[in-house]
Amino acid sequence: MQFIDLKKQYSLIKEDVLKEINEVLDSGQYILGPKVREFESVLENYVGVKHCVGVADGSKALLIALMALEIKPGDEVIVPAFTFFATASMVALLGATPVFVDINPKTYNIDINLIEHAITPKTKAIIAVGLFGQCAQLNDINQIAAKHNLYLIEDAAQSFGSTLNNKKSCSMTTIACTSFFPAKPLGAYGDGGACFTNDDAIKEKLMWIRVHGQNRHYHHQILGVNGRLDTLQAAVLLAKMRIFPKEVELRQQIGQRYCQLLQGTDCVLPTILNGHTHVFHQFSIQVKNREEFMAKLKESGIPTAIHYPITLNKQPALAKFSLNKVFPVAEAVAERIVSLPMHPYLDEETQDKIVKIVKQSL
Question: Domain of 263: which CATH number?
């Protein structure tokens, strides 16, 4: 059994993928070729935003976004305590300070009631992560950011394709970032990412920064990085975007079916807030005795994963930023969270088998 079945997806779009790749190979334009701009335009239309800038990966998207907002040493950036390492490490790489905030126990996203307590005169931005596939409460966080004159960055590496009040993830903040890591809702066949903004000046800086701060050939206006989206990955993603809306629907159907079948069992199921849709990048539940639970599933041939076993404040590389604070919700979730197989082509027979073994194991 596959945790994520990328081969099944490829079998459905093989001809289209190979056609797109061959057009790149025939063109000989492998770096920032026309397929990159074509893909950016497709994403702009899908998300409903003025500008999309394709970049090398999701982590680089966050780094480039922070650089475009001129985050520097001495600045503070608010981040959730429970998420993937890159959300905070990109802040620290720039010499700024990630300030951890606990999470909402229902959504696993940043707790909007705790954000203002973390704001100081040094705070310059908030990064709101859409963990597991549901975007954060961006309307509320936008109000907080506006009140305190802060930038809001959406980390939509896992929530791309979800919506809040019919607005697409990546359309509601100063800058939004996403990842095209192969396992993501929209995944490349390698690394890739993108930044989104409605601000013309920020878009220009994003484009400069991804090519070493270059605003024209060999003229470097600002400091930047090598952060370009590979043209071959853009070609693959163009093919995948043609089926992406349907895959979002399939993910939602499978995620909702999981919830229905596991209702009433001794585990904590995902919660979808009013006005939100969920793309179920992961289907994650909380269980007691996680190691025993995972071992039982493994005996039955069912793969599982933990996203994430260590909160950011306990990561050795970030420990100096924790200030010995505890984040009770995040730390409790990190001990109990486990993800079940989830992808758009998970058939009902396989899902029923998973649910049967999950119920027995619980």
Answer: 3.90.1150.10
Q: Are residues 33 and 89 in the same domain?
A: yes
61-79 per-position pLDDT tens digit: 999 999 999 999 999 999 9
Together in a domain, 176 and 283? no
Examine residue 1 and state whether it is found in any structural domain, yes or no.
no
Residue where one domain finishes, among candidates 217, 241, 265: 241
Give me the number of domains the chain comprises: 2
Query: Alpha-carbon distance 102 to 78, whole Å?
Result: 11
For residue range 190-241, list pLDDT tens digits in order. Answer: 999 999 999 999 999 999 999 999 999 999 999 999 999 999 999 999 999 9
Backbone phi, psi, residue 174, to 5°:
-50, -55
Which residues form the domain of 315? 244-361
- Record the tokens describing residue 243, joined without a space: 């089926």
Q: Which of 194, 215, 241 is the last residue of a domain?
A: 241
Q: Tell me how far apart the alpha carbons of residues 29 and 276 are, in angstroms, rounded to a whole number.
A: 40
Percent of the chain with pLDDT over 70: 100
Considering the entire predicted model, what is its pTM?
0.97
Cα–Cα nearest to 343, from 254, 232, 240: 254
Residues 319-328 have a mean pLDDT of: 94
List the structure tokens of 224.
């930047």
236 & 281 share domain: no
Could you tell me which of 192, 152, 158 has the C-alpha nearest to residue 61? 192
Q: How far apart are CA 245 and CA 255, in angstroms?
A: 15
Which pair of structure tokens corresponds to residue 313? 């404040």
- CATH code assigned at 235: 3.40.640.10
Distance, in Å, from the CA atom of 221 to the CA atom of 288, rounded to the nearest integer, reads 54
